[in-house]
Design brief:
Strand content: 15-25%
Number of domains: 2
Radius of gyration: 14 Å
Number of strands: 4
Largest sheet: 2 strands, parallel
Structural class: alpha/beta
Strand order of the largest sheet: 1-2
Length: 110
């Protein structure tokens, strides 16, 4: 979220796509700052939800991410397994590995 806040502050004319994955509505972080963000619920979508209701996958990324030939910078943040999966999907879709930046959080080690 800090990257998106900084972009909004210093370069609001630069387009961005924010995709957030949450287990359920109560797990949506920064809900008040997500205008225009794409959202997917992985376990409990709210009543009447018509958006995504699955884990982030290649089909979702192909639909939402800018085309690889536009050479966008892609930032992926989350638990290690999630980050590895999404980063690999972006690369498999044709995004340049050097432009896919990752940040992991959670437990470390074996």
């Amino acid at each position: 979220m800090c990257i998106e806040r900084q972009r909004r502050l210093v370069a609001p004319a630069i387009e961005s796509t924010l995709l957030l994955s949450a287990r359920g509505p109560e797990d949506v972080l920064y809900a008040g700052e997500l205008d225009g963000a794409a959202l997917t619920y992985t376990r409990r979508a709210p009543e009447g939800w018509t958006g995504y209701d699955r884990r982030i996958d290649a089909a979702m990324l192909a639909e939402l991410a800018p085309p690889p030939d536009s050479r966008p910078r892609c930032f992926v943040c989350g638990p290690t397994g999630f980050v590895e999966h999404v980063a690999q999907d972006l690369i498999d879709l044709g995004h340049e590995g050097a432009l896919v930046k990752t940040e992991r959080f959670g437990a470390s080690g074996g």
